[in-house]
């Protein structure tokens, strides 16, 4: 039994520059999948390759066992919601949404029915005769979404769908997207550089860097068990301490920190990954340092403590326990919570 | 580079061929030895010599330079002030349309209007009336270019200057002017070339004793086919090309239209 | 001729712009000229057809009289007329125009009556040329050159078909179709048809002009172009075989190709004169008269004959130049008496708009 | 007391703002008023006057100039001018659009080079460029000689002195004015527009017709105005390449002012040209609004 969508050994170069490097990925039906990574990591190229807007140099893409690459872009059961929305300014909202159905040559009644229905779903039926320039940002985004899903694609691709919206509308739209995905029963593949967005919305995330998938996992897995230092750094707040493994401890800047069992050989270079919320303050600890500053975030406060490492250590702390700036803090944690990653 | 174009190569290179074929013929014939207009007899540069020793052409050239320089100066001052005024002090679509109209107004209508004005004022036609007339449409082009540039510049720069205690005029000279300098240079060069080549308005508003170069060319072209014209065309092409290339460095063509 | 006091809208302009009212200039006769005026203090602007005068004339005149001269060119009578009649001071002191245009200018009171005592060389004027219909007695104009209009053709390319009639030009054999040009200026545009139909070249009769129009429209189908300036070059290159031409300009073609010939069609033709006038608005009238006198100098005027290849109504100049030229350019030998047999062109007054309209109809059809 | 001070302070500020606004706006607007609007007023005023016998105007008010303009002779010339200018405009579009489109497909540094190449001939003298066609197309010219030498024809063809030659001359003179605005409209179109159409199932040619073309329409219209307006007012091309056998409105206006000295009638013709321009602008603004959903300008 093969996956709903399988990407095998995909490669794409722009001249000397590698955009996608021998990439393989499997995505399940009805999954809300996020391609996450910094800009230039190849995630958008991959998305465009799925839509057929970009040719590939090598590899295969199969959708339900059907070769997708052999289909021209306008025949693929894959629709894309563009980052700029790409609403046709000379057409009305209705005409924009109906555009794709008309290209299929469907009967007029069916077009009208499906278009109206999807406009109702995104609550834009009243605006159907407006021109896109008369809509707000959130409304435009919903038209773009309606235009893509009205085609009932097997896969809906979303290119940074929320980046142009302000924060409040964005969180509303996140909910909306999830609801829609659930209702429509379509596989969503979302491209974003915003790890918070990916974590909050996706079932699974593929984190990409320099044309390669670094880790594919659920948001929780990725947070808890980053596979590499890059993942650990990209996902969430983290303390990354570079040092060397000895027989029983981890040496960082001349200080010895306790570690749990590790497969990494003694004497090798490694990174100790410590989430700020895993560290506790006490009267004694593994290391001590002076509190430099504290940033208040509502529910919690992030402390910055100078322990003599090459970076300040971040510690999450509840509001009523925040020490005065300048006091010496003692830090401790459960060594089993900390992850040790090879630093190669 | 060309492979991506496919069949579009045909119109692109076709259009260029269409645009340059007559010019190539003129340049070629400017080195013709005899004055037979359509027959090549041998290489010679004599027509260039005759050209620069022709008093009509030299006078015409001098008059044209005077007009182009003076009209450009007036146009840059008026056009820049107007562009700044429209961008910063009085945003009005109607005023803006009026300010830009001379640039696209039919030259013949403009020319006869000006002729009518000058005659009714009993104003003797001469280089000054051509300068006044040329400055009119040149200023519109300067306004358009400077206005475009001001669109790209944050008006908060001037507000910051005002906030720091500068007067409006002071802010104009210390902040606005330096930031629109490329547009000013491009506008000035465009004005200069437009005036250099302008025929219809000059034809109507010029006095009898001060023909500009295009007017001299007009009478030459009408009086038959002289190889001096070919030599002149070659020189005019080189000069214009030079000016345009300099202007290009200051402002890309695409921003102008 | 009825005198029309021209009203300008200058007062309207002044009112609009400055809230002032302006007075129009007076039409009173000019004050007497000073024969001892210092000409070096005066400057002259002379408007003349391009390539119709010695190129160094300005320099030579300045050398002799100390007057700075600016020569300005016009391509057609109409061009300089527009400037002279626009109202106000055109800046032109001396203008070269065709006779009927001089008549129109005089009718508007724009011309200075010539003081012959300041033009002693005018004694060279051929007496027949004093009686030209547009200015009997040469009161306000002094003819510069004169001649007639005919057909200029390539005898080698029209062997056996040499034209003798205006009809040969207007309704040519099919093989000459598209190899013919006619003059574009209104009066000469009309001339071949007027003469072919046996009418006067100055006719103001609307029925006659209607027939002229029909004939010209028919003739248009055979034309290469209407051409006032480069017709002789078209003959030289072979682009055209037969053109309507002024006698003098045909000579430019003859100079380049001996196969080019000129004939005056048997139906007759016009007598035209290009004449020199002094503008009333001129502030340099003494210098203007001196310039006319200078032109009538034997050497200067014979230069015109030798180089421009036009006949001039100057006895001494023609006597000096003609013998050497008449062999190569037979039409230079047309005598003043023969010229006077042709019809002199006069101004048409109000009827000029009829001519304009017909010219527009013909050229736009 | 303090309030009064604030008030005078505020007045002074307003006065200062008014002064600086005047400094910037008044010189230019005054110049345009005196040298464009007033002359236009003059021309309009002239249309109601009577021509003088020897030129100039007489203060006899009449509508005769307008009725004369409706004469079939002048209406015919106007229609032919419109046809010729429209033909030049249409050809300029047919050549200019694919050319502009091709330029947008080039790498961006090459785009500037090609735009420069398109513009460059435009800055050589207009009269000389027009004259060049005579050298090329004359019956003794290069094209005929070439065709005869290659044996394609044995009699020279007459290309010049026909309405077709006038159209060619106008097309040649103003083609760059069509290419530039179309180019600038095309480069402004978000490439995602066409991709979106394809993604929604349109074939590339459908995407071009349904998306790219309509979105470039405002640029096409600007180009059409830039070609049509100077074409219809042109009198040099009909004179040089039309051999005086084609009369356009431009020639007619020129002749009324410089030959027939009938300023009132010439003014009527000039006003008709201005009205035509205004109609075109109005149309352009409407299309702009329809296509881009924005106010033009």
Percent helix range of chain A: 10-25%
> Overall pLDDT of chain A, averaged?
90
Strand content of chain B: under 5%
Number of strands of chain B: 0
Roughly what fraction of the amino acids of chain A lie in strands? 25-35%
Q: How would you describe this structure in keywords?
A:
heterotetramer; B: 257 residues; mainly alpha; MetI-like fold; D: 297 residues; 12 helices; 2 strands; 1% strand
Description:
The complex is a heterotetramer of chains A (about 350), B (about 260), C (about 375) and D (about 300). Chain A is α+β, with helices and mostly antiparallel strands. Chain A has two domains: about 5-230, P-loop containing nucleotide triphosphate hydrolases (Rossmann fold, 3-Layer(aba) Sandwich), CATH 3.40.50; about 235-340, Nucleic acid-binding proteins (OB fold (Dihydrolipoamide Acetyltransferase, E2P)), CATH 2.40.50.140. Chain A is built from eight helices and 20 strands. In chain A, the strands form four sheets. Chain A has a six-stranded mixed beta sheet, sandwiched between helices. By secondary structure, chain B is mainly α. Chain B has a single domain, classed as Orthogonal Bundle (MetI-like fold), CATH 1.10.3720.10. Helices cover about 75% and strands about 0% of the residues of chain B. Chain B is built from 13 helices and no strands. Chain B is globular and about 75 Å long. By secondary structure, chain C is an alpha/beta fold. Chain C folds into two domains: about 35-145 and about 270-340, Periplasmic binding protein-like II (D-Maltodextrin-Binding Protein, domain 2, 3-Layer(aba) Sandwich); about 150-270 and about 345-365, D-Maltodextrin-Binding Protein, domain 2. Chain C has 14 helices and ten strands. In chain C, strands 1, 2, 3, 4, 5, 6, 7, 8, 9 and 10 form a ten-stranded mixed beta sheet that branches. Chain C is globular, with a radius of gyration of 21 Å. The model of chain C is unreliable at about 1-30 (pLDDT under 50). The interface of A and D includes residues 52, 80, 84, 133 and 148 of A.
């Amino acid at each position: 039994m093969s996956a709903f969508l399988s990407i095998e050994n995909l490669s794409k170069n722009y001249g000397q520059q590698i955009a996608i490097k021998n990439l393989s990925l499997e995505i399940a039906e009805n999954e809300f999948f996020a391609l996450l990574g910094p800009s230039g990591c190849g995630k958008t190229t991959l998305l465009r390759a799925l839509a057929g807007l970009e040719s590939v140099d090598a590899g295969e893409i199969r959708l339900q066992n059907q070769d997708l690459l052999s289909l021209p872009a306008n025949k693929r059961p894959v629709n894309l919601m563009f980052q700029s929305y790409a609403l046709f300014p000379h057409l009305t909202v209705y005409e924009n949404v109906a555009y794709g159905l008309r290209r299929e040559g469907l009967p007029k009644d069916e077009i009208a029915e499906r278009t109206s229905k999807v406009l109702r779903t995104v609550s834009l039926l009243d605006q159907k005769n407006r021109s896109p320039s008369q809509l707000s940002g959130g409304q435009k985004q919903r038209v773009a979404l309606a235009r893509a899903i009205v085609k009932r694609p097997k896969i809906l691709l979303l290119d940074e769908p929320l980046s142009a919206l302000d924060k409040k509308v964005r969180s509303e739209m996140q909910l909306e997207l999830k609801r829609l995905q659930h209702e429509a029963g379509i596989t969503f593949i979302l491209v974003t550089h915003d790890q918070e967005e990916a974590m909050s919305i996706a079932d699974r995330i593929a984190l990409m860097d320099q044309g390669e998938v670094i880790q594919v996992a659920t948001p929780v897995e990725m947070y808890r068990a980053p596979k590499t230092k890059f993942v650990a750094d990209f996902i969430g707040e983290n303390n990354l301490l570079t040092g060397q493994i000895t027989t029983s401890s981890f040496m960082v800047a001349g200080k010895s920190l306790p570690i749990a069992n590790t497969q990494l050989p003694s004497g090798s270079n490694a990174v100790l990954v410590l989430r700020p919320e895993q560290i506790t303050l006490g009267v004694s600890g593994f290391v001590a340092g002076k509190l430099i500053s504290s940033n208040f975030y509502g529910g919690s406060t992030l402390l910055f403590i100078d322990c003599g490492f090459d970076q300040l250590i971040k510690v999450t702390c509840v509001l009523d326990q925040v020490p005065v700036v300048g006091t010496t803090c003692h830090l401790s944690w459960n060594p089993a919570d900390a992850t040790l990653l090879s630093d190669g | 580079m060309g492979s991506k174009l496919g069949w579009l190569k045909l119109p692109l290179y076709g259009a260029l061929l269409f645009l340059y074929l007559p010019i190539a013929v003129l340049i070629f014939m400017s080195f013709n030895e005899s004055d037979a207009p359509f027959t090549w007899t041998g290489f010679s540069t004599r027509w260039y010599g005759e050209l620069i020793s022709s008093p009509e052409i030299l006078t015409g050239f001098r008059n044209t330079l005077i007009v182009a320089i003076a009209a450009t100066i007036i146009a840059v001052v008026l056009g820049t002030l107007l562009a700044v005024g429209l961008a910063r002090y009085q945003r009005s679509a109607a005023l803006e349309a009026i300010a830009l109209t001379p640039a696209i107004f039919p030259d013949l209508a403009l020319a006869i209007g000006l002729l009518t004005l000058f005659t009714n004022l009993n104003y003797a036609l001469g280089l000054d009336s051509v300068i006044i007339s040329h400055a009119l449409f040149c200023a519109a082009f300067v306004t358009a270019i400077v206005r475009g540039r001001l669109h790209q510049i944050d008006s908060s720069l001037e507000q910051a200057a005002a906030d720091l205690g500068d007067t409006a005029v002071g802010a104009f000279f210390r902040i606005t002017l330096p930031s629109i300098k490329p547009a000013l240079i491009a506008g000035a060069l465009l004005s200069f070339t437009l005036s250099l080549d302008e025929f219809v308005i000059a034809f109507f508003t010029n006095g009898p004793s001060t023909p500009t170069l295009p007017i001299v060319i007009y009478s030459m072209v009408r009086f038959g086919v002289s190889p001096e014209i070919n030599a002149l065309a070659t020189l005019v092409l080189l000069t214009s090309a030079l000016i345009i290339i300099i202007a290009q460095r200051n402002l890309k063509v695409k921003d102008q239209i | 001729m009825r005198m029309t006091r021209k009203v300008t809208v200058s007062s309207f302009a002044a009112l609009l712009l400055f809230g002032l009212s302006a007075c129009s200039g007076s039409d009173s006769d000019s004050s007497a000229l000073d024969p001892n005026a210092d000409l070096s203090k005066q400057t002259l602007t002379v408007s003349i057809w391009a390539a119709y005068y010695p190129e160094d004339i300005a320099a030579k005149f300045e050398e002799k009289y100390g007057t700075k001269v600016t020569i300005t060119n016009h391509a057609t009578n109409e061009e300089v007329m527009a400037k002279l009649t626009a109202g106000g001071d055109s800046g032109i002191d001396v203008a070269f125009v065709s006779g009927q245009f001089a008549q129109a200018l005089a009718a508007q009171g724009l011309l200075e009556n010539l003081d012959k005592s300041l033009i002693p060389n005018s004694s060279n004027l051929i007496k027949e040329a004093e009686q030209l219909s547009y200015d009997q007695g040469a009161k306000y104009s002094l003819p510069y050159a004169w001649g007639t209009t005919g057909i200029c053709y390539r005898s080698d390319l029209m062997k056996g078909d040499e034209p003798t009639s205006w009809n040969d030009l207007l309704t040519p054999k099919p093989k000459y179709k598209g190899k013919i040009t006619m003059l574009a200026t209104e009066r000469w545009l009309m001339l071949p048809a007027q003469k072919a139909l046996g009418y006067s070249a100055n006719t103001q009769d609307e029925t006659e002009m209607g027939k002229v129009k029909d004939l010209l429209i028919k003739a248009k189908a055979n034309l290469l172009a209407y051409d006032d300036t480069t017709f002789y070059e078209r003959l030289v290159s072979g682009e055209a075989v037969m053109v309507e031409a002024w006698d003098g300009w045909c000579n430019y073609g003859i100079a380049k190709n001996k196969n080019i010939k000129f004939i005056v069609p048997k139906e007759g033709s016009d007598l035209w004169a290009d004449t020199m006038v002094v503008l009333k608005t001129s502030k340099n009238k003494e210098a203007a008269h001196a310039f006319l006198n200078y032109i009538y100098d034997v050497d200067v005027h014979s230069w015109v004959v030798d180089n421009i290849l036009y006949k001039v109504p100057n006895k001494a100049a023609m006597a000096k130049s003609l013998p050497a030229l008449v062999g190569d350019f037979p039409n230079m030998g047309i005598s003043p008496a023969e010229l006077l047999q042709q019809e002199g062109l006069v101004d048409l007054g109000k009827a000029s708009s009829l001519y304009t309209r017909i010219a527009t109809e013909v050229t736009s059809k | 007391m303090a309030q009064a001070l604030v008030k005078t302070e505020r007045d002074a500020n307003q006065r200062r703002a008014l002064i600086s606004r005047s400094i910037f706006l008044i010189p230019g607007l005054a110049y345009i008023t005196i040298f464009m609007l007033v002359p236009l007023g003059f021309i309009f005023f002239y249309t109601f006057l009577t021509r003088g016998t020897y030129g100039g105007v007489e203060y006899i008010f009449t509508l005769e100039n307008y009725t004369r303009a409706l004469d079939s002779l002048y209406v015919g010339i106007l229609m032919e001018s419109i046809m010729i200018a429209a033909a030049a405009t249409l050809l300029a579009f047919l050549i200019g659009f694919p050319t502009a489109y091709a330029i947008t497909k080039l790498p961006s540094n090459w785009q500037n080079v090609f735009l420069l190449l398109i513009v460059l001939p435009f800055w050589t003298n207009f009269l000389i460029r027009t004259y060049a066609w005579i050298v090329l197309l004359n019956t003794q010219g290069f094209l005929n000689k070439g065709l005869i030498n290659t044996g394609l024809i044995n009699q020279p063809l007459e290309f010049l002195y026909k309405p077709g030659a006038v159209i060619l001359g106008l097309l040649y003179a103003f083609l760059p004015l069509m290419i530039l605005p179309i180019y600038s409209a095309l480069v402004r179109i978000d490439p995602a527009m066409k991709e979106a159409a394809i993604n929604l199932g349109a074939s590339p040619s459908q995407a071009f017709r349904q998306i790219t073309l309509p979105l470039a329409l405002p640029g096409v219209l600007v180009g059409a105005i830039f070609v049509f307006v100077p074409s219809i007012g042109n009198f040099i091309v009909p004179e040089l390449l039309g051999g005086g056998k084609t009369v356009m409105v431009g020639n007619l206006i020129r002749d009324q002012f410089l030959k027939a000295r009938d300023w009132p009638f010439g003014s009527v013709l000039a006003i008709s040209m201005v009205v035509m321009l205004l109609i075109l602008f109005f149309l352009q603004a409407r299309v702009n609004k329809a296509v881009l959903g924005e106010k033009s300008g």
